[in-house]
Design a protein that fits this description.
This protein is an alpha+beta fold and about 325 residues long. The protein has nine helices and 14 strands. The chain has three domains: about 55 residues, Arc Repressor Mutant, subunit A; about 200 residues, Bira Bifunctional Protein, Domain 2 (BirA Bifunctional Protein, domain 2, 2-Layer Sandwich), CATH 3.30.930.10; about 45 residues, SH3 type barrels, CATH 2.30.30.
């Protein structure tokens, strides 16, 4: 099936006979594989009598060599999967098997992609970036302070370089364009965070996606914002380089070295918000973040600080 996709990925018409000859199978077998492409991978295939079969637009598939070519200054091993439950789940399994960090797991699609608070991350085939980087962290909690915010800053800058100048941050780990989500970050820890542990840096970026009925919030993509189809290999390579630079700044100077830059990229700085914590709602105005990456709010004339993985921030009407 994927061999057939390699022949169709140029977006041009290919006759059933030509496809069958190239793969050494009958036209009937080609028809069955085309049905699988549509049913299993969710790809639309145009069928025109007398011309053959064509994808709606060309597809650039991911490749470890192609990603590495665009991030030649790094030696991170890259593992690419056609389809997987989630890149972060595979990263965790790889840690359990003793794979040495750092390494990167990518996929063309995820069947069980995860966001924050257990939400599903919609992951169509060959359209977006599903990315999990495994890091070994030594030196205790200081190396973890504000880490998800550091990753968000790297993602924001990669998006801006790729033609989305309006990309900005939303505490704690979303990247938005206006009020539409374009990327999200999810970190998972394995081991002792006070000593030596592994961190799985999960990143999802909407790249070439143009429609997704399953998404239950406002969203956008690089293609919708820029009007261009992006080579995801190139984007991932550049993201790797930018992320490596920010991780080194964080390692050497801690989160305070990046705090001010993060606040400059925060779209909701000074905005009236509601902070949702379970069944509780706290209304306030965003003052910024502290030296550990926690949210600073003005609540009832006082400054209060909030942090935690289950918190959610929402805009409200200005007071």
């Amino acid at each position: 099936m994927l061999t057939l996709l390699e022949l169709l990925k140029d977006g041009r018409f290919h006759s059933g006979q030509a496809l069958g000859d190239a793969l050494g199978v009958s036209r009937s077998a080609i028809w069955k594989q085309l049905q699988l492409l549509e049913s299993e991978l969710g790809l639309a295939v145009h069928k025109v009598r007398g011309r053959g079969y064509q994808l709606p637009s060309p597809i650039i598939l991911l490749g470890a060599k192609e990603v590495s070519k665009h991030s030649s200054s790094l030696a991170w091993p890259v593992h690419v999967f056609d389809s997987i439950d989630s890149t972060s789940a595979e990263a965790l399994r790889s840690i359990g098997r003793g794979c040495a960090a750092p390494f990167l797991v990518l996929a063309e699609r995820q069947t069980d992609g995860r966001g924050r608070r257990g939400r599903k991350w919609v992951s169509p085939f060959a359209e977006n970036v599903y990315y999990s980087l495994v890091l070994r962290v030594e030196g205790g909690m200081r190396q973890l302070e504000g880490l998800s915010l550091v990753v968000g800053l790297a993602v924001m800058n990669a998006l801006r370089e790729c033609g989305v100048p309006g990309a900005g941050l939303k505490w704690p780990n979303d990247v938005l364009v206006g009020q539409k989500k374009i990327a999200g970050i999810l970190l998972e820890l394995v081991g002792d965070p006070a000593d030596v542990c592994h961190v799985v840096v999960g990143i999802g970026i909407n790249v070439n996606m143009q429609s997704a009925e399953e998404v239950d919030q406002e969203w956008t993509s690089v293609r919708l914002e820029s009007g261009k189809v992006l080579d995801r290999n190139q984007m991932i390579g550049r993201l790797n380089e930018i992320l490596a630079l920010y991780l080194e700044r964080h390692r050497s100077g801690g989160f305070p070295a990046i705090q001010e830059e993060w606040e400059q990229g925060h779209l909701w700085q000074g905005r009236a918000v509601s902070l949702i914590a379970g069944a509780n709602k706290i209304d306030g105005v965003v003052l910024g973040i502290d030296r550990q990456g926690a949210l600073r709010l003005r609540v009832g004339g006082e400054e209060k600080v909030y942090s935690g993985g289950e918190l959610s921030l929402r805009l409200r009407k200005e007071p």
